[in-house]
Design a protein that fits this description.
Keywords: Oxidoreductase. It comes from Novosphingobium decolorationis. It holds the Pfam family adh_short_C2. This is SDR family oxidoreductase. The protein is an alpha/beta fold. The chain has a single domain, classed as 3-Layer(aba) Sandwich (Rossmann fold), CATH 3.40.50.720. It has a seven-stranded parallel beta sheet, sandwiched between helices. Strand 4, helix 4 and strand 5 form a beta-alpha-beta unit.
Length: 254
């Protein structure tokens, strides 16, 4: 049903992989900042629950099924948000598949699976919304990369790390080519965050060693990363473009 819902909120964002973890934190931060939020995920039930947790009325937050590998899924989500709230101002590419496996044990098919969600998904999102934002003459894209994409990673697989490195490169290409159309594209590269995914993937004893090796001696705050995404998506962030915003406790300084 293409019914524009009246909302006192003037800006709208689409966040991918928003049913849990950092994506849910990012959706929450945008919602607190006054945005209408389209939360999307391959897990439709989970993302609809996450949207209801932000706004049970559905007036300012909705859940959308979106597999980031599919161009048509991004286009459908874009159209749904435009129909509902009149336009989209920002996209956050956050969805991820994370697999921990030694490099010599990664099957080529598993490599493809991870790269397809993480890198192709970000490419497709940037392209679909790049075209849309170009038409509007303004737009903001924030890609969630990772420290692993800069240093090869510590507790993750080569497919994950390589996909995150690719996201950093894609960010620069889209940032350069879309800038003349009023669009900025930035990446955030977090180090290990205080999230369930980290505790699920890294055994407790190994995690303690990782934390010991972080100069600030603690895991990162997902909410701070989320607020950084909001900052980069603001109308005022017009001169921040093509940058990789390191939030890693000092693990990588450059
Ligand atoms: N957790 C960390 O410490 C950390 C550190 C650096 C970067 N990051 C980045 O933060 C982001 C979120 O990480 P997280 O730990 O919250 O992950 P997570 O695994 O908790 O959540 C990922 C979400 O992506 C969704 N997803 C998976 N495949 C999808 C697809 N094909 N289409 C749409 N959605 C799909 C999942 O259903 C899930 O909801 C990722 O980009 C990750 O690389 C996380």
């Amino acid at each position: 049903m293409n019914t524009t819902v009246s909302s006192s909120r003037s800006r709208t964002v689409l966040v991918t992989g928003a049913s849990q973890g950092l994506g849910a934190a990012i959706a929450g931060a945008f919602h607190r900042a006054g945005y209408n939020v389209g939360l999307s995920d391959i897990d439709e039930e989970g993302v609809c629950a996450a949207a209801r947790a932000l706004d049970p009325t559905g007036e300012s937050a909705i859940g959308l099924a979106l597999d980031v590998r599919e161009q048509t899924a991004f286009e459908a989500a874009r159209d749904a948000l435009v129909a509902r709230w009149g336009g989209v101002d920002a996209l956050v590419n956050n969805a991820v598949v994370t697999i921990v496996r030694p490099v010599l044990e990664i099957a080529p098919d598993e490599f493809d699976q991870v790269v397809s969600v993480n890198l192709r998904g970000t490419f497709v999102g940037c392209q679909v919304f790049g075209r849309y934002f170009k038409e509007r003459g303004v737009g903001r894209i924030v890609n969630i990369a990772s420290l692993a994409g800069q240093n090869g990673g510590t507790a993750t697989g080569a497919h994950y790390a390589a996909s995150k490195g690719g996201i950093i490169t894609l960010t620069k290409v889209f940032a350069r080519d879309l800038a003349p159309f009023g669009i900025t594209v930035n990446a955030i590269a977090p180090g290990p965050l205080d999230l369930p995914s980290v505790r699920a993937l890294v055994p407790a004893d190994k995690l303690a060693g990782i934390v010991e090796g972080i100069p600030v001696r603690h895991l990162g705050s997902p909410d701070f990363v989320a607020e950084t995404a909001v900052h980069l998506a603001s109308a005022q962030a017009a001169f921040a473009n093509g940058a990789v915003w390191d939030i890693n406790g000092g693990l990588l300084m450059r």
